[in-house]
Amino acid sequence: MAGDIRASLSYVWAKESDPKETYEFEFPGEKQWSCTRHNSIGAKAFRLVFDESACLLWWGQSYFLDPVELKSRPERAHWYRAADNAKKRAAFVWLRREARQPTSKVNCTTHHSTKA
Description:
The protein has 116 residues and is mainly beta. The protein is built from two helices and ten strands.
């Protein structure tokens, strides 16, 4: 299954448990990306890393998103704890809101096990 990760993420996302908290992705590099959180306190950018060999997007070393899973349910982004290799329970879920223009493409063709 091929998926265009950047296009899949190029939306404004809202936290399921707090719709006023939103997230937007930026893709300045090939594998080093960022996500900006907007909430009542203000805006804060976080560094993300795309692990091409595992086809996972990492938020630091604590959370990951599976782009293959996102492709199958594009309206919901599930972030899992690094230790949750089986993806039993999402640590948090984002709901897709408005579209943004993607800057370039990165494709995953297979899904590999996570790095813990």
